[in-house]
Amino acid sequence: MYYRPHSSRRSSPLDYLLPFMIIISIGIILVLGFSLVRALFSGEDTKAAYMHLVSGSAQMKAWGTDRFFDLSSDSLIMQGDEIMTSADSKVIVEFFDGTIMRVDSGSDVVFEGMNEENDSSQFQIQLLDGKVWLNKLYKDTSSNIVIKLADVAVSAGVASIFEVENGEDQVVRVVGVFEEGGALVDVLAKDGDKVIESETVGVGQEIIFTKEVLASYFAYKSPTVLSGISDDFKVAQWYIWNISEDKSPALFEKTGFGENFDLVKVEPIAAENEAVGDAVSDVAVGDEVAVEAVDKTVDGASPAVGSVKVTTPKITSVAGKTSVNANGFYEVTGHLATLTGQVSGADKVQVSGYTLQKFKSGDSTWTYFANADYGLMKAGENIYEVYAFDASGNKSEKLTVKVLYTPAVASPAASSTGGVSGDLSDSSGTEEIPVGPYGEGSVVED
Known about the structure:
CATH topology of the largest domain: Jelly Rolls
Largest sheet: 17 strands, mixed
Structural class: mainly beta
Number of domains: 2
CATH architecture of the largest domain: Sandwich
CATH class of the largest domain: Mainly Beta
Order of helices and strands: HEEEEEEEEEEEEEEEEHEHEEEEEEEEE
Number of helices: 3
Strand content: 25-35%
Helix content: 10-25%
Distance between the termini: 122 Å
């Protein structure tokens, strides 16, 4: 009889672990497969944006790929996608919550994040080049949007309208807000991991980060470069088109993608005149979108002259001078003109649309610095309009300050590097001078 020899081989630990590893692997595959199915067919978890091509063409690079492909019609944008617009194109992007973003020609935008957490939408956009215009007023969206530029990050959590540019300069402009607030701008360190300084841009204001301005931030000198939105910007076709769209949004159908993406439809209705806070007003195309305080009257009667207690601001000196030339201009030759004035009964003071942040209610004097190095005063004639407001929002009569700037001839010893020289203090060296525009200055107490 033949007997099979008994094997002396012992089972290895792998023999016992292998079945468990197979079961775990199958479980992982099932979970990933289920997640993929939900991502493809469930509108609840799928977050997207719809791109409407108004004119021209665009290119898209889908997430996880290396090549761009041409787009000649509307398309769906998913998280991680990147679009580049042609030199003659106009693009409107509508996010799933109703937030609108318009993209200028020659722009490059990456949609880094589009998600929803605890009923709050979160968007992270990287603007590599070009211009974008955000409108969160249509649906009063509660989403938080972060726009990353080369050296700054812009975030807005309240219903607002703002414009961002990334090119030779990095620019942020706030055109309108529905309530108190604006856009928060974080200046990042060169490595991009640390916030050096934060600025709040209010309605009707802009902040332009030139190389010289950024150099001051990187050196921790904290310049203030806020100013009123420039007139040149408000006559550009980019501004005119966006203001027109804000008043009467373009109507376009989102077709071909099913109903699961649950995009909010924005109806083309004009913004109403009555609004809470500073919002889009029914103004002519090209005018700044902002709402001033409205005097409350009874039965259309004119407000009594004596009801406005705030006085018209007065100017006491410009760059230390108290007299004007035959044409009413204060003549200055230095790059910095310090405007000093008096006021009574004021809750706040505005210079060319900018509210002086360091002015406190009841202060009797105000100071504002116009620095030519930052474009706050140009060679030739400069006009500054000053208003005071009381606690009820009543506005004073306008004070007009005219400054004639004739730059002094630079001496041979002057720095040839250009930009910020590093000295941001006045002649006494005791007070830091904000270089911001209609930059706020310190208030001199009596």
